[in-house]
Amino acid sequence: MAVVLIHLVLLPIAAWTGLRVWRGPTGRRLMEAATGTVFFGLFIVASAAVTLDVGAVFFGLLQALAWLLFVYAPGLLLLGAVRSGGAPRWVGVPLALLLVAIGVDAVLIEPFALQVERATVVVPGLSEPIRVALVADLQTDHVGDHERAALAAVAAANPHLVVFAGDYIQLEAPDEIDRERAALGDAIRTVVGAPPLGAFAVQGDVDLPGWPDTFANTGVRTATAPIEQRSVGPVDLVLLDLETSRAPLPALPPGRGDAAVTIVAGHRPDFSLGLEDAGPNVLMLAGHTHGGQVQLPGIGPLITFSNVDRDRAQGVSTLAGGATLVVSAGVGLERSTAPRLRFFCPPEVWIVDLVPGD
Fold it and tell me: Global pTM?
């Protein structure tokens, strides 16, 4: 529905702009189109401020921007190049083709280019290596080959411990939610198996009431209390619910005295802001940011919806006290009215090897 509304607005504007570009002068008309687009965007943002569903309007605006950049703008540039000829043609045609190429990569290629990211963390006092797999933000509306490939990549790594960091199914209709929860549960049960130290899941932003049903009969244990502690082998595992992960965690709860490592997992990485002084025996795992889904070289993610610094919004970071934070860019995409694309930010699962050392 959102796509239809977007085109109902953009098509007449593009047709009128195209007619003016054809009549010329080309440069001036293209500049008018760019200026008009900016003011139109500002109008939509201002309108969103007085609506009840600001998030849906915001993501809808981003989707409209994607259509403008990758479809309508290239068309107008090509039209202007054909009409004007000469030097503008040598600028307009390559620019239009570049925008189309970026759109093809961002929409059709990169969202499915799954990466297996690896990190090695030295843990003082650890007697044997422990391999931990982090799966975040599957965030799908249809469980298919992409989601199964992510789970298969985890299984192929033979982890000792698997953590699911929230955002599993993003749908609204109850019957559709039940269908996809069952499909995801079947995939987990079939592919992941039974890791020696277990598999655990926390809640994400899009996970509606009843989300633990996704993991029924899979062997994955779900955490629903604000803070749950589990003792698994040499690991003190601290699982945070969604609300607890939204704010800095003031301190780690008292753990088992003989545990070699403490692993803290929550959906949002914001909880790590309270644990800057945690020592090198602490590993923190999170998702939520999607790595921004769009990153620019030298800048990083443009939007993270998190209070952590941009350079910590994806990947591995070492905190001041020596603890390690791993934030996954996720497997899936923001759904609803958002544009379903990734750019310089492919989907990923993380394999973290904890190894003995000083």
Answer: 0.90
